[in-house]
């Protein structure tokens, strides 16, 4: 049965449209919202898709309003899809008690702990349900999709790409939680969603997944600000990911950007580089849909 989309808002932007939708999700058993930037080119031809995953406490609104990505996506002819960061309205006891677990903090995993496993299935939502909705309802090129994100969403982007070899043409991240099994945020989230078996946690840890990855090239770009307080608190651990990628002989580019923090000012500063990075692979090194 096809998913019914309800359009909540629409605004013209750089010749295209920023639309917001909601629908009932079979993955989370809740109503989910997402934003789409539809470039003008999609009125005449199918276009590639770039998925963005946001970080802790965010909704589907933060990136689309703050990142400044639409101008370059419009020039390139790339559709942007921006989902929420967790189910909302599941009414699970304790899901809104802290900012780094539960609502706004789904960590892009499929929860296995009974309390959370019915609704907190964000991995399936991002990699199975949402792509099918996009393919069915929008003018997109088959097989031409990439993924990127920030912080928790950077973790999600890396994990989604590595657990689905060949599904995404490229992956990038801003200040990702690169080794969650070894940082306080990850330990808290994984204990809650996945239980006490720390071996099971590794299935959602980019640093461990890169060691075993055997699919097509991932085409990874990571930017990390040197004045990011969460970097200094050992929540992000990009050095662990880079070491694991190097040892496994997987090409990844990790750039430390002097003086930048964890905010959307940082994202705005380098969003163009990331869209350019993905365009290389979404268009097979050919010109964008100008």
Characterization of this structure:
It is a single chain. With 290 residues, the chain is α/β, with parallel strands linked by helices. The protein is 34% helix and 22% strand. It is built from eleven helices and nine strands. The protein has a nine-stranded mixed β-sheet with strand order 1-2-3-5-4-6-7-8-9, with helices on both faces. The protein starts with 5 loop residues before the first strand and ends in an 8-residue tail after the last helix. Mean pLDDT is 96; it is low at 285-290.
From the alpha carbons, calculate the radius of gyration and give it in angstroms.
18 Å
Q: Please, what is the oligomeric state?
A: single chain
Low-pLDDT stretches: 285-290
Helix content: 25-40%
How much strand content do the residues show?
A: 15-25%
- Strand order across the largest sheet: 1-2-3-5-4-6-7-8-9
Task: Summarize it.
It is built from eleven helices and nine strands. The chain has 290 residues and is α/β, with parallel strands linked by helices.
Q: Which properties best describe this structure?
A:
9 strands; 290 residues; 22% strand; single chain; disordered C terminus; 11 helices; nine-stranded mixed β-sheet; alpha/beta
